[in-house]
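Sequence, please.
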């Protein structure tokens, strides 16, 4: 998967970030809210014809989840 088509949910010192190439980072206090926003963003991009993958990291920065959003 091309790096420009990956949305990361990544821990911060005091919150969570949603990161994607070409977009300003989005910051949340809750990991659940960051994950939900990443999935909403992926849904919109897939509807615009871009296949996107959401990758979720835990506090130790281990990959704990991925979800593919195919282009429609």
């Amino acid at each position: 998967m091309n790096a420009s088509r990956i949305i990361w949910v990544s821990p911060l010192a005091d919150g969570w970030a949603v990161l994607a190439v070409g977009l300003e980072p989005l910051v949340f206090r809750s990991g659940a809210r960051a994950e939900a926003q990443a999935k909403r963003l992926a849904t919109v991009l897939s509807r615009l014809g871009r296949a996107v993958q959401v990758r979720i990291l835990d506090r130790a920065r281990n990959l704990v989840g991925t979800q593919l959003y195919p282009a429609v």
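Strands lie at 6-12, 15-20, 26-28, 52-57, 63-69.
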